[in-house]
Amino acid sequence: MTTGYVFHPEYLWHDTGTSAGLLPADPTAGVQPAVHIENPEAKRRTHELIHACGLMAELLVIEPRRATMTELLRVHTPAHVQHIRDQSDLRGGGDAGDGFSPVGHGSYDIARLAAGGLLALVTAVADGDITTGYALTRPPGHHATADTGMGFCLFNNIAIAARHAQTLHGMTRIAIVDWDAHHGNGTQTIFYPDPTVLTISLHQANCFPPDSGWTHENGIADGTGHALNVPLPAGSGHAAYLHAMRQVVIPALDRFRPDLILLANGVDANVFDPMARQMLTTSTYRHMTRLLVDAADRLCHGRLIAVHEGGYSPFYTPYCVLAVLEELTGTTTRVADPFATVVAGYTAEPLRPHQQDAIDAAAALVPHIT
Ligand code: 6DK
Ligand code: ZN
Question: Taking a C-beta distance cutoff of 8 angstroms, is the pair 304, 263 a contact?
């Protein structure tokens, strides 16, 4: 069992600039500029930790390539691809669609390298070179819909990868698990009418996008039943997420019987993250990944590919990703989470009734998956 790893320095060159942290700065209105919250730091430190802890010896480095126009157009409209290209051509950059998602000068090519990095992992799995993989990419993708970017996302990397697996590699049924703290609305929308792609999103209820990711959002037409959402109340921690994995995600995967599992690995539901109010620790990410690895072993010859999404704590993000990678590779490194004692109490937080209610409501929909 080999784990592929994709990274490229260009990912760090996607320039989100200065804003007021996340919304456009406007000194004339008293809105102070700051480094954009989606900046290279957390991902750079993650890549460095992967080296420093010795894990590179366990990984097969896979070189990313740029996704082609044909590949982008399997998911996105020509107008959206052209829009990103035009914004990227502007000397000062532009925006992907919602006014909060910077496109730096040259980011079109970097976004294609992000999507293409994940495609390289899919191909490596199909070729039998690897069974699991991790793409440590920027910019993120899961909010981007067919015709617009939003929530810091330009192209929907994971959707492009799912279509690639189906079109070129004969993997018919694809399951996408998204545990980023924010709703994977773009991915859900793209596959909403499609019964061949199961989307499951665990996220903080009504966080971002606003009013999105409710339990009753289940797909349309032939895709009905093949979108699942677990909107977890703010303050959810280890017990709630593990319960959601055991009661919803794993039973859904067992019913769906995917040929490939893709994971949108946002780690911004961790307790130190500034962009959500959940309480996960490295231990949670380790346990959740272990459950997915076991499901993949049972259902699809171990095929499980993760792509990086959100994660904004520069100091804790690297350890969350390391926990995921250790489970994907089936090894442990010499580096233990240095914050484990600090957050020990969070892991002990019990499952609360309002969290259980939210999870039970989603679990009730699992029998409808075909
Ligand atoms: N809120 C992500 O981590 C991105 O999922 C999260 C993006 C959060 C944006 C917060 C935001 C608004 C803005 C305007 C109006 C209402 C709310 F994609 C990932 F990076 F993974 O802009
Ligand atoms: Zn997020």
Answer: yes
Instruction: Taking residues 5-23, report their average pLDDT.
Output: 96
Which residues, listed in sequence order, are joined to residue 153 by a DSSP beta bridge?
150
How wide is the angle at C-alpha 252 spanned by C-alphas 246 and 255, nearest 5°? 125
Of 8, 47, 143, 203, the active-site residue reads 143
List of domains in the chain: 3-25+33-197+252-337 (3.40.800.20)
From the CB of 307, is ligand 1 less than 6 Å away? no
List 229's β-bridge partners, or say none.
Answer: 201
Distance CA 265, CA 311 (A): 9
What is the chain's mean pLDDT, rounded? 98
Ligand 2 center–CA 142 separation, angstroms: 9
Distance from residue 261's CA to the centre of ligand 2 (Å): 20
Per DSSP, the three-state class of 134 is strand
Q: With contact defined as beta carbons under 8 Å apart, do 208 and 214 qualify?
A: no
In ligand 1, the atom with minimum distance to the C-alpha of 268 is: 3
The answer, yes or no, to whether any atom of ligand 1 lies below 6 A from the CB of 213, is: no
For ligand 1, atom 3, which residue shows the shortest CA distance? 310
Q: Whose CA is nearest to atom 19 of ligand 1?
A: 310
Number of H helices, E strands in the chain: 12, 12
Phi, psi (deg, nearest 5) at residue 176? -115, 115
Active site residue 143: yes
The band of 347, judged by pLDDT with boundaries at 50, 70 and 90, is: confident
* DSSP classification of residue 36: -
Report whether pLDDT(348) > 90. Answer: no
Evaluate whether 238 touches 281 at the Cβ level (below 8 Å).
yes
Q: Helix H segments across 127-215? A: 157-169, 185-190
What pLDDT score was predicted for residue 1?
A: 86
